[in-house]
Design a protein that fits this description.
5-stranded mixed sheet; 48% helix; alpha/beta; 18 helices
Length: 428
C-alpha cells in the first residue's frame, strides 16, 4: 500500500474511532422512577426499565420502589423539598391534595412525545385531569361488574343481554325465588352493597358527589331512606339472600355455598376479581349490565384508574421522561413484560395484545368495557374516606337485620356522617 493510501486509511480509522468514542462518551440522561407495589410488580417494572435502557443506552433510569405504607408521606416530603423523582406513580384520590400544594406535575396533553390515542378520551378527561390539565395516565383500569352464572341464567330463562334497571332486578328476583326458595338472583358483600346503594341514590338524585368537597352531604334524608328501603325490598322479595346468611362471608362472596352450588345468578364485584368467582372453571361466567335509571346525570358506576403515572414538572428531563412513559404504555414489548401488574391495561392496544397472548381474561376485559360505557363521575377523596365507609356499612347491617327502619337508619347515619365530616374538616 502506498504511503498516501496508508495515510488516508489511518485518518479514516481514526475518525471512526473518534465517532464511536463520542457516542459512548455522550452524557447519559438520568431519570428516577418512583412506584409502590409487591414483588411481582417490582420485578416486571425493573425488567421493563432494563429493556428500555438497553434500547436507549444514553438513558439511565433509577427505580425507587417499596410498599404502599408511608409512600404518600414520603412523596409529599420530596415534592415539598424539590427532591421528587422524574416519573412518579400516585393514587388517583390524592390528586386534590397534591394539586392544592401547587402546580407540581406536567400537563401530559402538551407533551408531544406521548401518544394518547390509545387511551379512552372520556376516561382521561373524567378521571385523570385537574382543572383541564392531564395530570397523569392510568396504569390500569378497574370497574364494578355484574358477574352472571350462565347456567343459572339459562335455567331461569334470563337473557344475558338484558338491560337491567332497579325495578327489573326485583321483578325477576321475586319470580326466581318464588319458583325455587333456594335460588336468589343477586348477592354481594357489605362494601359492594354500599356501592350499589350509592349508585341507586346518585342515579335518582343526580348529585355529582356522595360527599361534597366542602364537607357537606351530596344526599338528604329522603334519598338515604329510599335507598335503605330499596335494600330492604331486595331482602324481603328474596332477590338477595338474608343478611344472616351472607354477613359471615363479607369480602368472601365467592365462598358463599349458594354461589358454589349455582343457586345464585349474579355477584357484584370488581372486574379484576372475576377469576375468583369462576372457582377454577367450575362456574361459567359472563358479564351483564349494571342497573341504570334512564336520563341520569350520574350513573354512580365506578370505574377507576389502578394508579396514575405522572411526570414531575420540575424535572430537568421532562422530554426524556415523556419518551419513557410513552414506551411504558404503548410499546408491545413493554406491555408483554408488564402484563396486568398494575391492573387491567388502560389502553386498547395493551388489552388487545394481552388478550391475543391469553394473558388477560376476556370476561375481565368485557366487564371493564361495560363499566366504562356507562361510567359515573369519579369519586372524590372524602367519599372514599375509610371512617365514613365503616359508618355506612354499620347502618346497612342495622337495616338488613331489621334493627332499624330505613327512616331511622337514615336519620342516625346522617348525624354520624355530619359529626365525622366536622371532625375531618377540623383536621384540614
Amino acid at each position: 500500500m502506498k504511503r498516501s493510501a496508508r495515510f488516508v486509511f489511518g485518518i479514516c480509522l481514526a475518525l471512526i474511532l473518534v465517532l464511536n468514542l463520542s457516542v459512548y462518551a455522550a452524557p447519559k440522561t438520568n431519570l428516577r422512577f418512583m412506584w409502590w407495589g409487591g414483588e411481582s410488580r417490582h420485578k416486571a417494572t425493573i425488567d421493563a426499565i432494563e429493556l428500555y435502557t438497553k434500547k436507549n443506552p444514553n438513558v439511565k433510569i433509577e427505580g425507587e420502589y417499596g410498599g404502599f405504607t408511608g409512600y404518600q408521606q414520603k412523596l409529599l416530603t420530596q415534592l415539598a423539598g424539590g427532591t421528587a423523582a422524574d416519573i412518579i406513580q400516585i393514587d388517583q384520590p390524592w390528586m386534590g391534595e397534591l394539586m392544592s400544594r401547587g402546580d407540581m406535575f406536567a400537563d401530559l396533553n402538551k407533551l408531544k412525545d406521548i401518544d394518547l390515542s390509545t387511551f379512552d378520551k372520556n376516561f382521561l378527561e373524567n378521571q385523570c385531569q385537574w382543572e383541564n390539565k392531564l395530570i397523569g395516565l392510568p396504569t390500569g383500569l378497574n370497574g364494578l361488574s355484574f358477574f352472571a352464572n350462565t347456567s343459572f341464567f339459562a335455567r331461569h330463562n334470563i337473557p344475558l343481554d338484558i338491560n337491567w334497571d332497579w325495578e327489573k332486578l326485583i321483578e325477576i328476583g321475586t319470580r326466581i325465588h318464588k319458583q325455587n326458595k333456594s335460588n336468589y338472583l343477586l348477592t354481594m358483600d357489605i362494601s359492594h352493597m354500599q356501592n350499589l346503594l350509592k349508585m341507586y341514590m346518585l342515579q335518582h338524585n343526580g348529585s355529582k358527589d356522595w360527599v361534597n368537597e366542602n364537607f357537606t352531604l351530596g344526599f338528604d334524608k329522603k334519598d338515604l331512606t329510599e335507598a335503605f328501603s330499596y335494600y330492604l325490598r331486595l331482602i324481603e322479595t328474596g332477590t338477595i339472600p338474608p343478611l344472616e346468611e351472607t354477613v359471615l362471608l363479607d369480602s368472601k362472596t365467592e365462598q358463599n355455598p349458594r354461589w358454589i352450588s349455582g343457586d345464585i345468578g349474579i355477584a357484584q364485584n370488581w372486574a379484576s376479581s372475576v377469576s375468583l368467582f369462576k372457582l377454577d372453571g367450575k362456574i361459567k361466567l359472563d358479564v351483564v349490565s349494571l342497573p341504570l335509571l334512564k336520563k341520569s346525570n350520574n350513573t354512580g358506576i365506578l370505574v377507576r384508574p389502578s394508579q396514575l403515572m405522572v411526570i414531575n414538572k420540575r424535572s430537568s428531563n421532562v422530554k426524556e421522561a415523556a419518551k419513557f412513559v410513552n414506551w411504558f404504555f404503548n410499546d408491545p414489548e413493554a406491555i408483554l413484560i408488564l402484563k396486568s401488574e398494575r391492573g387491567i391495561p388502560s389502553t386498547n392496544l395493551a388489552t388487545k395484545l394481552l388478550e391475543e397472548n391469553k394473558l388477560i381474561d376476556p370476561i375481565m376485559a368485557k366487564g371493564i368495557n361495560l363499566a366504562m360505557k356507562d361510567a359515573g363521575l369519579p369519586e372524590n377523596s372524602l367519599t372514599t374516606n375509610k371512617e365514613l365507609i365503616t359508618i355506612f356499612g354499620e347502618y346497612i347491617q342495622q337495616v338488613g337485620f331489621k334493627r332499624l327502619t330505613p327512616a331511622k337508619a337514615a336519620d342516625q347515619m346522617m348525624r354520624s356522617y355530619q359529626l365525622k365530616l366536622k371532625e375531618l374538616k377540623a383536621q384540614q
